[in-house]
């Protein structure tokens, strides 16, 4: 799970990494009040989970509280790379003399974390990394050692960062380990004109699998600014992602569902969502999945693609039949069942003979059917 | 022959007495797996009766290994304890640890992989369906009954259900070994490890490689194929239309240079001489055509 900038900022502060004074608000009026408390002149920063906010107009300087209110009014509700701005953070401006880039990122191939650092931080770090890779140091961190004082000094030296950055590198490592983060990035990390090292902006991605030992996040309320269908799906415990097409998709196993989206796209239609029901085949999950998908008005047909491995297709068919009792089906449903108990599953759907339920014997033919039904609807 | 797992493999199950462990131990036994022990510290000394076999339960992996000469373990313990289970198996000198558990924190996976590697223990997973050498042994949850036939194809896959789908479509041709390596960011055994093992397995004539978006494992596998693999490889990549979703922003791009897209992976494989199917069934047809 990616965190908002203001959430990342809280984690930095908790682990002793200095950050500028700031407040988070969701109305223009509150923005004025916050700017008054912060000393008048503030930076207004859109809180969206995407990079490149500055270049997209999501970061603006306001000279006084009235300007902060006006700026907040302009920024709130706008769209930045597909993310609607629901909140802004107001931060005290900082005068700095140098900007650095530092991060800890998972190196999947090596199966360990990598420290990445550069003395040339700021908005163009990706270009620096691409055009002058020597300006970016990449140092592996051994899992059983972590980032000690001497390791931090080594990273700073390799990247050409001043030695006073090293203690910050140690604390950011603590953020990574103690918060079960997969990514901790500070860009820019600055040296202020009065000699302090401050994290001006940051990104943290935490590991959802560590929820069982990270009580703080599990206590968090769902994101009020996310997609409403995704919020409804999350509330029901479904693994659902909203997309912008017209064929609703339900399948078992992430790989098979991704493959299903691709095959539907190959048939000339666009998938409306990703929904993985996993190994379970309960009627409740099927009903929840169907109701979330059918509440999307863009959906013109639904494709249920199940390969029965451990999951038995007769149980899936039963769950579809029972889901049809609670969900009013208004658009065609194409079902493909294969593998474990597929013949019994198909017979159950044949017996039910719902006029809007169509069966297909292969994934490819089912995808073609679902695509045709959606496009001709 | 087969890779990693043969009929001589002696398998123990960590977490055998739990609901998942019991269900899959029964299935593994039915597939011919030589299951010699279960491990549960609270149930040491018990024995569990299955249809044709009684399996003793030991308090530790070390005791189980000493008593039964087990050389493979399948881990079904819940996520908070999976790391300790792998460490215990590595300490006991088990050569192959198959971690089925889904939802293991990445920091734990990083730690136990480093630990196991330093002790010469191979880990497959976590969050994987395990591996099957049809007709010989099955360590994990791959349903042997839909794809039980031995044959000439080796398969390595990030995805469980796509493994089942391809094995089902190619059930008449059959497999030496199919390995589900898992889709988590940090996994023990990679596409490259399996490609190397299949290259050295005289019975494997063709390798199917299934990948999906994220990371750059398929790109690295493609480079390995170009350099070291002489056997034909057929590929399939899932996720061309998947949402960008959890991208890693700056740092991810800086590390890998690509964003791990399906397109980039397909190009890399094709440049290495791999024929890549556009659907699972087309992939199966390409494999059959190659086998002749």
UniProtKB/TrEMBL annotation, chain A:
Q: Which domain of life is it from?
A: Bacteria
User: Which pathway does the record list?
Assistant: Carbohydrate metabolism; tricarboxylic acid cycle; succinate from succinyl-CoA (ligase route): step 1/1
As recorded in UniProt, its EC number(s) are 6.2.1.5
Q: Which UniProt keywords apply?
A: ATP-binding, Ligase, Magnesium, Metal-binding, Nucleotide-binding, Tricarboxylic acid cycle
Keyword Nucleotide-binding attributed: yes
Q: Which GO terms describe its molecular function?
A: ATP binding; magnesium ion binding; succinate-CoA ligase (ADP-forming) activity; succinate-CoA ligase (GDP-forming) activity
Q: How does it assemble?
A: Heterotetramer of two alpha and two beta subunits.
According to UniProt, the name of this protein is Succinate--CoA ligase [ADP-forming] subunit beta
Report which gene this protein is encoded by: sucC
UniProtKB/TrEMBL annotation, chain B:
Indicate the quaternary assembly.
Answer: Heterotetramer of two alpha and two beta subunits.
**SUPFAM superfamilies the record matches:** NAD(P)-binding Rossmann-fold domains, Succinyl-CoA synthetase domains
- Binding site residues for CoA: 17-20, 43, 100-102
Q: Does the keyword Secreted apply?
A: no
Q: Which organism is it from?
A: Streptomyces agglomeratus
- Any idea what this protein is called? Succinate--CoA ligase [ADP-forming] subunit alpha
- Pfam families linked to this entry: CoA_binding, Ligase_CoA
For this protein, the record's Gene3D superfamilies field holds: NAD(P)-binding Rossmann-like Domain, Succinyl-CoA synthetase domains
């Amino acid at each position: 799970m990616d965190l908002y900038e203001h959430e990342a900022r809280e984690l930095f502060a908790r682990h002793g990494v200095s950050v500028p004074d700031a407040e988070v608000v969701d109305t223009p009026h509150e923005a004025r009040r916050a700017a008054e408390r912060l000393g008048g002149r503030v930076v207004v920063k859109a809180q969206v989970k995407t990079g490149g906010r500055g270049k997209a107009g999501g970061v603006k300087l306001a000279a006084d509280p009235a300007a902060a209110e006006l700026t907040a009014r302009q920024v709130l509700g706008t769209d930045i790379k597909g993310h609607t701005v629901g909140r802004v953070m107001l931060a005290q401006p900082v005068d700095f003399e140098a900007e650095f880039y530092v991060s800890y990122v998972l190196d999947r191939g090596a199966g360990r974390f990598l420290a990445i650092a550069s003395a040339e931080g700021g908005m163009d770090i990706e270009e620096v990394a691409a055009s002058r890779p020597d300006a970016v140091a990449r140092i592996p961190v051994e899992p059983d050692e972590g980032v000690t004082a001497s390791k931090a000094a080594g990273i700073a030296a390799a990247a050409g960062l001043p030695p006073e950055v090293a203690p910050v590198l140690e604390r950011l490592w603590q953020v990574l380990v103690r918060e079960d983060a997969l990514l901790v990035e500070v860009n820019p990390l600055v040296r202020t004109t009065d000699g302090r090292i401050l994290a001006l902006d940051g990104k943290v991605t935490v590991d959802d699998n560590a929820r069982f030992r990270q009580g703080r996040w599990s206590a968090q309320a769902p994101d009020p600014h996310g997609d409403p269908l995704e919020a409804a799906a999350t509330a029901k415990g479904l693994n659902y992602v909203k997309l912008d097409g017209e064929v609703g998709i339900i399948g078992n196993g992430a790989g098979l569902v991704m493959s299903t989206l691709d095959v539907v796209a190959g048939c000339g239609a666009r998938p409306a969502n990703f929904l993985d029901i996993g190994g379970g085949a309960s009627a409740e999950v099927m009903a929840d999945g169907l109701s979330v998908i059918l509440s999307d008005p863009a959906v013109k047909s639904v494709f249920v693609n199940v390969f029965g491995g451990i999951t038995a297709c007769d149980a899936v068919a039963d769950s579809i039949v029972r889901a049809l009792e609670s969900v009013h089906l208004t658009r065609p449903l194409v079902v493909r069942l294969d593998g474990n108990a597929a013949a019994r599953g198909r017979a159950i759907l044949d017996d039910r003979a719902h006029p809007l339920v169509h069966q297909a014997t292969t994934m490819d033919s089912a995808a073609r059917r679902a695509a045709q039904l959606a496009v001709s609807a | 022959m087969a890779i990693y797992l043969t009929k001589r493999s002696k398998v123990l199950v960590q977490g055998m007495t739990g609901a998942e462990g019991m269900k899959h131990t029964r299935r593994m036994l039915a597939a011919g797996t030589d299951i010699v022990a279960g491990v549960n510290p609270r149930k040491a000394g018990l024995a569990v009766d299955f249809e044709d076999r009684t399996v003793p339960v030991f308090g530790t992996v070390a005791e189980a290994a000493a008593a039964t000469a087990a050389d493979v373990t399948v881990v079904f313990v819940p996520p908070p304890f999976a790391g300790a289970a792998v460490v215990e198996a590595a300490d006991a000198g088990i050569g192959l640890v198959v971690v089925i558990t889904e939802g293991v924190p990445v920091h734990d996976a990083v730690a136990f992989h480093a630990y196991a590697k330093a002790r010469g223990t191979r880990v497959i997973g976590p969050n994987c369906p395990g591996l099957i050498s049809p007709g010989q042994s099955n360590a994990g949850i791959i349903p042997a009954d839909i794809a039980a036939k031995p044959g000439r194809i080796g398969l390595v896959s990030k995805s469980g259900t796509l493994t089942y789908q391809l094995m089902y479509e190619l059930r008449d041709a059959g497999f030496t070994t199919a390995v589900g390596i898992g889709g988590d960011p940090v996994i023990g055994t990679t596409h490259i490890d399996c490609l190397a093992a299949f290259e050295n397995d005289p019975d494997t004539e063709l390798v199917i490689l299934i990948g999906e978006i994220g990371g750059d494992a398929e790109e690295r596998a493609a480079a390995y194929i170009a350099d070291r693999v002489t056997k034909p490889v057929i590929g399939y990549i899932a996720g061309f239309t998947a949402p960008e979703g959890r991208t890693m922003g700056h740092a991810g791009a800086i590390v890998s240079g690509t964003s791990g897209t399906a397109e980039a992976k397909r190009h890399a494989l094709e440049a290495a001489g791999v024929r890549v199917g556009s659907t699972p069934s087309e992939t199966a047809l390409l494999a059959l055509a190659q086998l002749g």
